[in-house]
Amino acid sequence: MDTKLIRNFSIIAHIDHGKTTLSDRLLELTGALSQREMGEQVLDAMDLERERGITIKAHAVRLTYRALDDQEYVLNLIDTPGHVDFSYEVSRSLAACEGAILVVDASQGVEAQTLANCYLAVNNNLHIIPVINKIDLPSAQPAVIKEQIEHLIGIDSSNAILASAKQGIGTEEILEAVVREIPSPAGDFDAPLKALIFDSWFDSYRGVVILTRVIDGEMRRGKQIRSMATGQVYTVEDLGAMTPKAISLDSLGAGEVGFFIANIKRVADTKIGDTFTDADRPTATPFPGFQEIKPMVFAGLYPVEAEQYEPLRDALEKLRLNDSSFFYEPENSLALGFGYRCGFLGLLHMDIVQERLEREFNLNLLTTAPSVRYRVTRTDGSVIEVDNPTKLPPPNEIDRIEEPMIEATLLSHHEYVGNILKLAEEKRGVQKKFEYVSPTRVMLVYDLPLNEIVMDFNDRLKSASRGYASFDYHFSGYRESDLVKLDILVNEEPVDALSLIVHRDQAFPRGRALTEKMKELIPRQLFPVPIQAAVGSRVISRETIRAMGKNVLAKCYGGDITRKRKLLEKQKEGKKRMKRVGKVDIPQEAFLAILKVQ
Amino acid sequence: MGPIGLYIHIPFCAAHCSYCHFVIDLARGEVQGRYVEAVEMEIEHWGSRLSHPDRRRVDTLYIGGGTPSWIPGSAIEKIIQTVRNCFAVDEGAEITVEVNPDSLDAVKIRHYQEAGINRVSLGVQSFHDEELKRLGRTHHAAEAESAIQQVRQGGFDNISVDLLAGLPGQTVSHWERNFERLAALQPEHVSLYLFDEDEESVLGRKILRQASGPVEKMKPRPGGNLPDEEELRRIYDFALCELDRLGYEQYEISNFARRTNPTNTPRSSLRSRHNLKYWNMEPYLGLGCAAHSFLLPRRWHNENSTEGYIQALFSENDPRREIEEITPARLAEDAFIFGLRQIDGIQYRSLSDLLGREAGTLFRPIINPLLAEGWLIEQGDTLRLAPKTLLVSNEIFGRFLDAVPLET
């Protein structure tokens, strides 16, 4: 195919700024799908994506567009996940493009996520087409938004397209800009194959389906190809493009985007960012930027009922077929029994995995407080990584602890800046930048410990800014910190699933808040139950749950033994949903509350 | 096989009391007449069906409601006459009728006497007008007192009074008045019920909404205007103490009988013999809508709605619903759970006879830790609740559920 007629591009936008609606309009206008065929949100296939209005997996759609110059172009629209948890996947999707449409809501303005993804695009040398969307809203302020784009992203926005994806305004103008402004892909058709992998998923009939951007050379059916990350060799069995229906093609050449199938059994064997090359004539250098994805957030997943342990294992196995970015291993908790320690890219990823397990596999799960991975240097000089507070060695064996840090960018209306500064300070943040990007909009950059973010930062930020502040971050390295393990003892017994690693300065307030919360959440038992927070052997806070006063049925209704039995059975069911630690029944909410206390 | 107890349900009431869970019906006149007819048909049916002479023997008869005193006294008399025609009612059978203070009159009392009723249970609930009003009761405290006197003058020497503890706004001091009245009126029996703030009654629902707002309605919090657990304990402990002082023995979690002295009463006990059957797994047959029955190996209840029940009887259909086969495991659990409600507890020997296996060893893994923690007391052949257990007994009973693997 003549690469001059190919355009590969992405859409960058904040949640709700209209990326999905615009994608649908583009599909509609290019005739990829008739209006009737279009469900809402064609690109977001998973139920969860549709419900949350976000894109979890990347997709690529090939559109055919006859432009005003009367040439027919092939436009590859590569959809990217919008969330910071998946920023590596975003970067690989962007690496497959030459340009990006930047969509900004005409009344909301540039948000932190947009900014982060836009920087990624700029760093990948993508041409950016600014689009100001929702222009039909009365609150639209295109002039202000243009200024923000120039100031924050540093690109010329004077020609920004004013659009309303919902009303279909500006769609054709956008397509023309794509054809006119985005460079066609460069690439050497005769060079050895160099194909970038930017997405893959498991199809139960065809095995792993891989989305690729061919940089150089050509991929053909029957060709032997090699993964440069794993060294494995495969034979291409089928290849083609999504229109969005899958169509088979004879080949994918330099500059093209499409899918291939090569009898690969596990998604884990197709690493995002990997390069596939000719097995017998390999390219000298892989496409740059490949990284192994590393989980950042860890939590224990436990079945509420012990019988669901095996089903949980099967479900995790199945889920991993399609999502190689989370990992799991068996874990045993004194309080919660048998479960799995799981690692996730971030909190949203954790939420999604948990929700899919519960929804698609009908499991009832208890998730422990998320933790990050600490680097602990022991007094004997050895270094271990600890992602579960219970695995922290005793204090006398610890020389120092380092914790993962992030650089966070926050954007907010200036009205809420006071609240946000207070929150960032509470979360041990160190301010690196404070800048008015427009008369009413402030950008803040902070160094923050990741463990402060995984607890309740997002919720707190939302309430501090009435939902208006946006937030994005990237991992910035490890830093030594004065951290301690905070234990919660219920009826004199430490409950491992309630242990936390916290900064020493926060041990007392957190300990107190937690004991108070536990007192509220743990129902009265037949005996008084002391709740203590302790660092090492030192108790720093104590509450007591009074003994139960009344649980009696005072009347037998005309011999209605069955009704009384049913009440007792209901009571028993309620207890079954709790976890028994020692002699105390602890409800699930108590294990989750650890996230909520301030 | 010993004699059985008979329960007959009269669902009719003048008004719906706000604390009540019972199946009741506000219908009058014609419906009541057809209902009584249907009940008589059911009595006749069972009279001929239970051909075994012991099963036809009746030693307790309890007419409950609803408000049995809301329907004509002649109707009650007629029902009892039908029972006598169809069953062998023992000479000394305990025959109880439930009455409400405001629907009682001299004519009804005379009918009850004629019918051979020898025990009257009065739904007093409280001697405080304000509390009565909140409960949606249609009577005043003074009416209750005069009703008790009226029944007494009508020749009844076994009167029971129902009182309700734990009502909104109630404190220990309210109970001082209740006991002052009990001391003066000297009923033979007192039932002390605890108000349940659950979803099943109008007042319960109202309190749940009030206490916790619309979102978490299943979790009543202290601070609504219900007495909290500690206050309720104080009320209960005070009641136990006062009733004891006034000469009542507690024989079940919420039932108290005047102590008897063999020299001046012919009866050995004033405990409700009918209610004892419920707790001792003895057979009883419930007739009328929503009435519950237990005749081994089954439990069931009748159609709940008055109309549905009448229709079933008139069209010769079975009014029974939810007929359950009682497995040996279920019977064993019930025998412990309900037997232990009695202050005297259970006798292993008699339970072993009932169950056909060693009752004491059956639940040993459940019983021993409870003995060690002091929730149960074992003395020789007897197992009973410790005094501190009464108000939290559901916690203990719950442990007997599904605890023993038994073949069914």
Question: What labels would you give this structure?
Answer:
heterodimer, A: alpha+beta, 6-stranded mixed beta sheet, 13 helices, globular, B: alpha/beta, Arc Repressor Mutant, subunit A, 2 domains, 9-stranded mixed beta sheet, 16 helices, 21% strand
Overall body shape of chain A: globular
Helix content of chain B: 40-55%
* Greatest interface (CB-CB under 8 A), with counts per chain: A-B, 25 and 49 residues
Overall tally of structural domains of chain B: 2
For this structure, the CATH topology of the largest domain in chain B is pyruvate-formate lyase- activating enzyme
Largest sheet entry of chain A = 8 strands, antiparallel
Structural class of chain A: alpha+beta
Number of helices of chain B: 16
The helical percent of chain A reads 25-40%
Please report the number of helical segments of chain A: 13
Descriptive notes:
The complex is a heterodimer of chains A (598) and B (408). Chain A is an alpha+beta fold. In chain A, the strands form seven sheets. In chain A, strands 11-10-16-7-8-15-12-13 form an eight-stranded antiparallel beta sheet. The radius of gyration of chain A is 27 Å and the shape is globular. Chain B is of the alpha/beta class and 408 residues long. Chain B is 40% helix and 21% strand. Chain B contains 16 helices and 15 strands. Chain B has helices spanning 29-49, 53-56, 73-86, 106-114, 129-134, 141-153, 172-185, 202-212, 229-245, 273-279, 306-314, 328-339, 348-355, 359-362, 364-372, 393-398, and strands at 4-10, 57-65, 88-99, 119-125, 159-165, 189-194, 248-252, 255-258, 284-287, 292-295, 298-302, 320-325, 346-347, 376-379, 382-385. In chain B, strands 7-8-6-5-4-3-2-1-9 form a nine-stranded mixed beta sheet, sandwiched between helices. A three-stranded antiparallel beta sheet of chain B has the order 10-11-12, with no helix packed on it. A three-stranded antiparallel beta sheet of chain B has the order 13-15-14. In chain B, β7 and β8 form a beta hairpin. In chain B, α1 packs parallel to α3. Chain B starts with a strand and ends in a 10-residue tail after the last helix. The model of chain B is unreliable at 212-224 (pLDDT under 50). The A-B interface holds A 524, 526, 548-562, 564-565, 567-569, 571-572, 575 and B 7, 9, 21-22, 62, 64, 191-194, 196, 228-230, 232-233, 253-254, 275, 277-279, 284, 286, 290-294, 299, 301, 322, 324, 334, 337-338, 341, 373, 375, 390-395, 397-398, 401-402.
